[in-house]
Design goal:
The complex is a heterodimer of chains A (78) and B (380).
Chain A lengths: L7 E4 L7 H12 L5 E6 L4 H12 L2 E7 L4 E6 L2
Parallel strand pairs in A: 1-2
Antiparallel strand pairs in A: 2-4, 3-4
Chain B lengths: L2 E6 L3 H13 L1 H5 L3 E7 L3 E3 L18 E3 H4 L5 E4 L2 E5 L4 E4 L5 E2 L2 E4 L4 E2 L7 H4 L6 H13 L3 E7 L9 H15 L6 E6 L9 H13 L3 E3 L4 E5 L4 E4 L4 E3 L2 E5 L2 E2 L2 H5 L8 E2 L13 E3 L4 E2 L6 H19 L12 E6 L5 E6 L12 H18 L4
Parallel strand pairs in B: 1-2, 1-9, 2-5, 9-20, 11-12, 11-17, 12-13, 19-21
Antiparallel strand pairs in B: 3-4, 6-7, 7-8, 10-18, 14-15, 15-16, 22-23
Classes of the chains: A alpha+beta (78), B alpha/beta (380).
The complex binds flavin-adenine dinucleotide.
Flavin-adenine dinucleotide binds next to helix 1, strand 2 and helix 9 of chain B.
Amino acid sequence: MTDIEPDKTVDARGAACPGPLMDLIGAIRGADSGAVIRLLSDNEQSRTDVPEWAEEAGNELLAVEEGDDHTAFYVEKA
Amino acid sequence: MTERVVIVGGGTGGSVLANDLADRLESKLDAGDVEVTLVNDGPDHVYKPVWLYVPFGQRETADGRRRLDELVDDAVDLRIDRVTDIDTEAEQLGFSDGPTMGYDHLVLATGSTLRPERVPGLAEGGYNYYSESGATDLREELLEFTEGELVLSVVGTPHMCPAAPLEFVFMADDWFRQRGLREDVDITYTYPIQRVHGNPHIAEWARPIMDERGIEVETFFNAESVDPEAETITSMEGTELDYDLLVSIPPHGGIDLIEEAGLGDDGWVDVNKHTLEAEAAENVYALGDTAATGVPNAGSVAHYQAGVVGRRLASEIRGRPATATYDGKTLCFIETGMDAASYVEFDYENPPAPAPPSRKLHWSKLAYNESYWLTARGLL
Ligand SMILES: Cc1cc2nc3c(=O)[nH]c(=O)nc-3n(C[C@H](O)[C@H](O)[C@H](O)COP(=O)(O)OP(=O)(O)OC[C@H]3O[C@@H](n4cnc5c(N)ncnc54)[C@H](O)[C@@H]3O)c2cc1C
């Protein structure tokens, strides 16, 4: 368990790809620099999509937490 | 007591549904047991797929407009007014002009709205073919454009017709070739994620065609701002592109009322993706673009969903359990040039497999566009 306190949580469980990544991008777009967004996704592809995008955009993927039925990604806006 | 069905939105989904119900519930409508009202904020029905052809001088925006009172069955009450308030507790709608109206069954089919203002400079610096005025403005620009950088940027998803950005660059490539200008025009296509289309199967099919035709691709490109003076577009990922002509697929949203009514975020209604019933309220359905099902925002989807909601409502009104469900069916023609097209069909379970492009499929798309008015009437 991480003790990171997210500024915002985006629940994209149930959404098909690329929904979760686009929801994360949308949240980052509206966030201030330094804000942490937590994305919840149960889509397999998010496990590669989210880290790849975070790196490309220069945002930091602080933690990835595996839940029972979903994964939580913590991304800090650069 | 008369059961009141109110459909908000007289676009593809709302019109097909109104006509479907007029047919399915004919005897009940005649007897006055049921009332079906279709509300639209203008007198015309607009068929948006025509706009793709307008910039290339192939169609007029007027080809995509017909009066709703000519398309919708006389048994349906047509109300030309704008809904300004949805109260799902009181089961009542407020309007900009007329008195409030109660409902027993509400169907939201209000479609998508463009939100270019979400990206600074986009409205001033970019053109689009996702609105009537946008399509005609772009036609003027495109006709005068004989050399330079044409950038097509898909700014947000979901957006209407996920195939349309691919179609535009394929058509532009062919159009400039036919006019002997292709060597003087660079075409760049940008997409927000790491491939050229949201659906991996369509992306895999489209990418080699783009490479073959010399269409440049920038993936992981989420437009952050446009500088109309400097003619540049910059992404959140830090890439800057110069353009001479910028065509964008602007960010989309549903209508604000939906969010205000607590039915879903960003104007899209949260629904059960099989029954199309709203998650947050009783007796409310949503269909077409406004229903957040994860399938493309396409007219074909609105059409199929209207059939499902029509069958469900007819069962409910007859006091029987509603059993019809939506399986995610989507059908799209994809223009791959000025005289060739591909075709895909898929659903929640089965992925798309694009057909080899052919002239026959191109003519099928044009023929469908012509016969669309029969679809809206509920005949096809
Ligand atoms: C350029 C382009 C090309 C396209 N090509 C294709 C294609 O080839 N194939 C395909 O399947 N789809 C295509 N589409 C997508 C298709 O047009 C839409 O997905 C379809 O129109 C959605 O239908 P709808 O009924 O959900 O909404 P719409 O058809 O948009 O209708 C919504 C209606 O609701 C009305 N309304 C909104 N708010 C209110 C209110 N508050 N009160 C009253 N009325 C209101 C609107 O005025 C409108 O009449 C294309 C779209 C574009 C832009």
